[in-house]
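User: Design a sequence. Structure:
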């Protein structure tokens, strides 16, 4: 599957609210910019393939870099991102899109 999958996904999907349970878990880094990736998101494979350069397609790409790649390629992904997870140091949050539009 070409969509984003992070090690923290399992913890978020099983409802872990106390990130102390994730102590020792290494946060993945974006392979495009090298920054720690605190957001887990998923877009359809077709969108991922249109947006992400081939050298990064099977790797971790942060939301910021994904957005930059989409801007460079003029791809509107505003209707493709439905759920966004944030994994902080003290809590994990799940965000759902209420509305979205291209800018």
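Assistant: Done.
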């Amino acid at each position: 599957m070409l969509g984003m999958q992070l090690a923290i996904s399992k913890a978020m999907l099983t409802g872990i609210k106390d990130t102390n349970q994730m102590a020792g878990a290494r946060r993945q880094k974006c392979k495009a910019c090298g920054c720690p990736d605190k957001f887990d998101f998923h877009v359809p494979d077709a969108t991922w393939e249109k947006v992400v350069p081939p050298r990064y397609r099977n790797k971790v790409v942060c939301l910021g870099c994904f957005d930059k790649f989409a801007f460079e390629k003029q791809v509107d992904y505003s209707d493709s991102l439905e759920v966004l997870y944030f994994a902080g140091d003290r809590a994990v949050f799940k965000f759902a899109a209420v509305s979205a539009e291209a800018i």
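Strands lie at 39-41, 83-87, 92-96. DSSP finds three helices and three strands in the chain.
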